[in-house]
Amino acid sequence: MTVIADNLTAIKDQIRTYEKRYQRKEGSVFLLAVSKNQSLKKIQQAIDAGQFAFGENYLQEALPKITTLQNNRLEWHFIGMIQSNKTRKIAEHFSWVHSVNHHKIAQRLNDQRPNDLPPLKICIEVNVSHENSKSGIAIDKVAALAEFCSHLPRIHLRGLMTIPAPSKTLAEQRKEFHTLRSIFDDLKQKGLNIDTLSMGMSNDMEAAIAEGATIVRIGTALFGPRG
Ligand SMILES: *Cc1c(COP(=O)(O)O)cnc(C)c1O
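Above: the input record for the complex with pyridoxal-5'-phosphate. Below: its predicted structure, written as tokens.
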């Protein structure tokens, strides 16, 4: 067994524990392995241990990994900041994009998604921390962007994503995730057919699962410190 295989088993056990603790359905939390700044060797070890979904933040770093590992039937998620001039390659090479924060980006991803691929699954990234430095769209603009995305045929709006401001206690962490959950529930009540809350990283996974995360994005707890 490799260290990464051990880590993967431990993280899956933790997810199972938190699903039980917070009355979540067993198997309702999906593990996305965040492989940014991690070597091909480590990614291969995760694949050998059964992991197939990987998240990357930087297109230039991700493309060679995707090409090298293309025989493994992997699922790649783009989770980083999106520059307009990168949307074509993102639309061509990824299954999911978690970080849509502007209607122009959504439109470009829609227009550039190749026709031989299924619609690109997307989440809208929301700034729940009210910090100017944080990425993501302001809370009061989410509904309009979600409505816009829901009419684009080549993207499939699946839900919301957030990266909260770092906070130490479980209660503090839960507060921001709870905010995202409320926005998500409001959108569903307005009739949007969404099912995904992408929230929770190595340091706040428990809080995210407690508040309803369906995808947790885990980097360092799986791969160790980034190189
Ligand atoms: C790096 C990153 C992660 C993983 O963070 P860890 O603390 O290493 O688990 C998750 N989501 C996003 C958007 C990231 O950039």
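Notes for the reader.
The chain has a mean pLDDT of 96.
Residues 34, 36, 57, 79, 163, 201-203, 217-221 surround pyridoxal-5'-phosphate (CB under 6 Å).
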